Amino acid sequence: MDIQKVKEKINLAKVVSFDVFDTLLFRITSSPEVIFDLTGEKFGIDNYRNLRMKSQQEISRIVLKSGKAPHADINEIYTYISEKNPGYDWDKVKNFELDIEKASVIRNSEIYEIYQYAVEHGKRIIAVSDMYLDGYFIEELIKQCGYVDIQKVYCSANLKKTKYEQTIFEEVAKREKVRPEEIIHIGDNQKSDVELAKKSGWDAIWYDTEQQTELRPGSFAGLGKKLHKNASFWYLLGGDIAGNLYVNLYRWLQKQQHKYECDKICFLARDGYNMYQICKKVNENHVIYLEMSRRSLLLAGITELDDESLKLLPPYALGQTIAEILNYLGIDEGKCEYIPAGFQNSQDVIINDELRERMKHFFKVNEKIVLEACEKEREYAKQYFEKKGVLDSKVLYFDCGWNGSSQYLLKRFYRVLGKKKEVPFVYVGIMDTEKSRKQLNGLPYSTYLFGIEKNPNIAKELKKAIVIPELFFGAPHPSVWYYGENGEVVYEKEEMNKQKKEIAKGIEDYFNHIYPFIEKYEICISGKEIVTDMQRLIDAPSKREAVMIGNIENADGFVKQKNLKKYIARLDMSTIRKYPRIEIYWKKGLLKRPDISLGVKLYVVLKEAVKNILKSVR
């Protein structure tokens, strides 16, 4: 809609008329019928949506046939339902529907700008709606959303005239005491708000809501578009895919804090950033943001190079040089010995598992240097933890999860400091692997979505492209590398992906609108709806999603390699030839992209097929 042209038309009109729903107001629900679903769930009425809609249609036909009105109003609908379905307090059900309807509406910021223009230019402003709700009730909805200068609401339920019958337009013009052509009407329905209005002599403008979302159907789908019509792809992705997950996670976290009897929740960087921002606004005194990474505590918990410690050290992927590994660990490559460990120099590349194993011998050869680095990092890490006040506090730690490495490393760190305290963790999910079982053995923790012997099917689906759920547990700051003197946080040198901030904002806005609503009305968002959102994105992305997400470079968790740019789902044959063992992070994203060659797609499919065959043979 061209705002300037709308304003020009307003200048010529005496009366400015607005449609109500999906024009002046939006519902936070994905459709009006979701209100019926939520009402039915509240009172335990099975399939209430169908009952409510069918009853409205039936009583409207009866009313129309009697000649009393073109359709039934809210009172007639519920009178009809109560007569046909005894056994419920239908007045109570009706009042709940009206209450939840009132709580679900938000102002359309784009239309509000036009409304303000009309107010500033002294125009008479009215609202016209085909609706079963009473006009006085609609007026309450409008005014609670800030449209306090709308002077009259004309509703079909009161006037007994409608847009679709083309009878309301003449009646409104008559009551407004203006000629039809002196009214400009703005609405979202091309037929009733534009075509029929113009046939009645009014000027009319179609307001294209553009709320169709490619992301998913759901109770609150499309909310981001309603809040910000021109919102970025990333903003919409954050709310539409992860919004419900964060709402339910927040509820679950409160229960876990009570379960573990902890005074505060400590959110680990960077996975806990978004949830920290949400919780901080609710109760700032009960949350801590701990800038910590697996790398930052890797050396701090090592006092000897036993087998357990050696298994923790890199390389974590083939293709790295020894120099890259030592730089990652903060060890001076010039002080190390290479020949005794079977290497030539720091530029040797770890290209196979044999050389990966040889690196353990390299660390043993240079044990003194390695342990000096460990002692130094331990002292600085201790200083940071003391500043944050968590060393001697009883806190509950939040991490995204997958293998429990953060809890394992934190426990090792506390142990070498002589702290015998428990370190309870809560996770979004933990994969059931040999590594997770070993690392979490005997440690106190709980999982929300999946865990060891818990919801294995969910874990299996998300594991197909674990990089996708990780998108929604990032932070708009670099990863913590290590702690410097006086506990100063030293970050890794990396370019920040701008989408993280937008994703976080989308999640936060979704939460701020939906959480109070569902909490007030005790609404339960099903686990199926939460997981389906993520599974759909992993298995059936749109082309736009595949390209936009696939182009993200060096996502969280990617092992860095010199001269190699890694993307979530972007690959070419030259890279494959140079790095034949390069990881495939999101297969369905790669295959969906229209700009990826057939040769690359064939390679991806064959590589996975060979991998599955080898796995079955083993």
Explain what you see.
The protein has 618 residues and is an alpha/beta fold. It has four domains: 3-206, Rossmann fold; 233-296 and 376-491, Rossmann fold; 304-375; 531-617, no CATH class. 51% of the residues lie in helices and 11% in strands. It has a five-stranded parallel beta sheet with strand order 5-4-1-6-7, with helices on both faces. Helix 2 packs across helix 3 and helix 3 (48-66) packs across helix 4 (74-84). The protein is elongated. The mean pLDDT is 93.
User: CATH H level of the largest domain: which superfamily?
Assistant: HAD superfamily/HAD-like
- Distance between termini? 61 Å
Number of domains: 4
Total count of strands: 14
Strand content: 5-15%
Secondary-structure arrangement, i.e. CATH architecture of the largest domain: 3-Layer(aba) Sandwich
Low-confidence spans: none
Overall pLDDT, averaged?
Answer: 93
Q: Biggest sheet, open or closed, and with what strands and sense?
A: 5 strands, parallel
Rough outline? elongated
Output the CATH topology of the largest domain. Rossmann fold
Radius of gyration: 30 Å
The helix fraction, in percent, is 40-55%
Structural class: alpha/beta
| Tally of helical runs | 28
Strand order of the largest sheet: 5-4-1-6-7
